[in-house]
């Protein structure tokens, strides 16, 4: 279980204070207005931001002293997930070994994972030769192959068109059903994950304003308060 | 009949000017084929030019890349000052670099004085390879460091975070994040530094130590000024153009940056910054660089002590002449850049002929290959029929300096012109805008800052230039760099350092203005 309790981060122009619990095996959608602190929350869990105070644990283990590489997390960003000079296979292999020196077994695992995301024929291609959707599939494959139990998806599909975005969300849903993994995913359009997510957290002004079942959160007043058309 | 585009006329005029100058130079002695007679001399000059340029390039790259990586990994008080110094060294006049090298490493320089104070009685000379290499590395390594550092900053923050999340070692960080940037930047950068060192004039003239150490540029100068052998100058110029043009064309096709990636995320720290071994290595690199650069800079700054002693009418006149020439040169280079940029944009957007547009892009860079002395001499031979030869310098100096600064002005101005066309071209066409109205409403709002930046940079380059003024300089026409050269020649090092400081200060101020204009938002 992921537990975040009163984790506080302070910058000159922004203060965040998060509390949230996510059960193992859950797909948790993080929604909220732009600049509200969704990405900061994921970066804190991944180890890119260090809270000044509070508790941050996963299955009872304190994550705060751990470096990003030592944490049980794997992250996928909206862009720039791949190294442009490496092939698709090599980019995915980085999730196993940063040295890229793989055993025969590991090479098979890479091929299987590529197949699972539908990219088995494109292993030799460089990211520049692939579409946006294919690139994000590769990034997902790399996150999956690392066998880390907590996957963080930082608006991974927001640059894709709506139909492709839905396909990718279904792919994420398939993955978490095929193996025990907890997924936290920030997303701009809550409607697209409402039927698949087990939990939804609404983040605004650096706080988790509400957390619960997607249907409850979608009906809540905070969603309307932060819609752009209601501003002003 | 429809009039050609002004940019096309400008391109034609530049080509005609260069071709005319060379034809005039080559035909002044009836075009005698003198190449065979200068064979052994030519081989010696070529060999020296190639060896010194290669060594200077290798040393500048090693030094510059080491400093860039160390600065990318380290943050310390005063880092911003170091970065701004690196950014402005490209306008450091080469004659000032000569002064700095002589002041620190010369026979009576700081180093020799220091060693003598320890009881050493021997003698050593900085002239020849040591002095040339030190001066070239002093001028070029900071420039390399700045460009490489800018390239490293293009790596998106997400990839640094990914490297941290994947637990990259320093070696893996270098392989997957630094090396792709270096591989993209270094070939072009190496070509550019090689070209600058291959064409080096003031440094080789002052620190070469004799006629056996001459680049083609110095050989052309000597043929024109000392031996009055125009035919030899023409041959040497053709050979230099052939070599430099080949390098320039290769540079033009190979110098491709990786696609500029943008990210809205704040910058992420590098994961290898905490590695203990790298900390020691970086500290060593930065300390060694400081030990090399700081004394040379201080030797120029030491000129402040003699500032009062050099205040005379010669200095004031030279300053006014330098400013006037730099202003005219900057005006020429910026106006030519705007005209060529407009023509390139027209071919790229309206006529959909990117290959022709690429030729317009290539033209300013090709000027880097043209030896200014040969071009000046050729134009002088044409002009002397119409203009008083004593006044020719006042016309040719700003013209040649303006053409010399054109590649840099074009690089600043043309991309923004293209951007203005892409953003507002269709709108202005639909509104029926044309001519100056179109320029004022569509181009100028986006262009004014890069124009100002290019103007200041062109002024800085011209202000500190000690090139063809060596041909025309004298009591009639004396710029500040020429005054500095005279003081150096008379071994009046204290006065020379004060003049050098004035040149450096003015050039740095102009470069600073240029940098501020380049980075400011519209």
From TrEMBL, chain A:
The organism of origin for this protein: Microvirga brassicacearum
InterPro entries, per the entry: AAA+_ATPase, ABC_SmlMolc_Importer, ABC_transporter-like_ATP-bd, ABC_transporter-like_CS, P-loop_NTPase
Similarity-based family: Belongs to the ABC transporter superfamily.
Keywords associated with the record: ATP-binding, Cell inner membrane, Cell membrane, Membrane, Nucleotide-binding, Translocase, Transport
Transmembrane domains' residue ranges: none
GO MF term (any one): ATP binding
Domain ABC transporter: 2-230
Matching PROSITE patterns: ABC_TRANSPORTER_1, ABC_TRANSPORTER_2
Record carries keyword Magnesium: no
Protein name as annotated: ATP-binding cassette domain-containing protein
Keyword Membrane found: yes
